[in-house]
Amino acid sequence: MATRVVVAEDGVLLREGLTGVLARFGFEVVAAVGDAEELVAAVAQHTPDLVLTDIRMPPGFRDEGLRAAVALRRERPRLPVVVLSQYVQDEYAAALLDSGSGSGVGYLLKDRVVDVQDFVTALRTVAGGGTVVDPEVVRRLLHRPRDPLAKLSTRERDVLALVAEGHSNSAIAARLFVTEAAVGKHVGNILAKLDLPPAEDTNRRVLAVLAFLRA
Fold first, then answer.
1. In this structure, which CATH number among 3.10.450.60, 3.50.50.60, 3.40.50.2300, 1.20.59.10 belongs to the domain 4-143?
2. What is the pLDDT of residues 10-21, one digit of tens each?
């Protein structure tokens, strides 16, 4: 049975080219779309065996395709995904490679895909649950500085920034228009994600602020 693929690429010529190459090598392209929203909808409709997506897509032409891939993997950890890029986007590359225990995922740089047979082999490897990552992506991820705040959500970063400014939980709640209990929960999550266990002789809020300032 042919591997069923959803292709996401905003460039019409490249999208048609990818579709043609895949068909020539025995893949079945069940949908070929031009933006991230259509990608998510196509995956929901067709339940493909593999997703092949560009990173930069409408409307912002930044990292919409990669963010969609990370979101799809979060919902479907076993969905094989290959992303094509002209550059390495460190944060989302790491998130993509961490998803689904790192299996069934590929991150390839367009400029370094020079052999169609190698490209097809990479797709088949990922579709079979393997991992294929361009060596340049690996090099960048290994040498990037570790961000202690990488695990925090956007809201948790907002809360930590206000903690760093010296605001109490009640003051933070007023500024963010949430309940004080919600702020307390966010603070607890922040301390846990920063690996700051309870200790009698340390102020965990101060340690969290120090991590924020270093980042």
1. 3.40.50.2300
2. 999 999 999 999
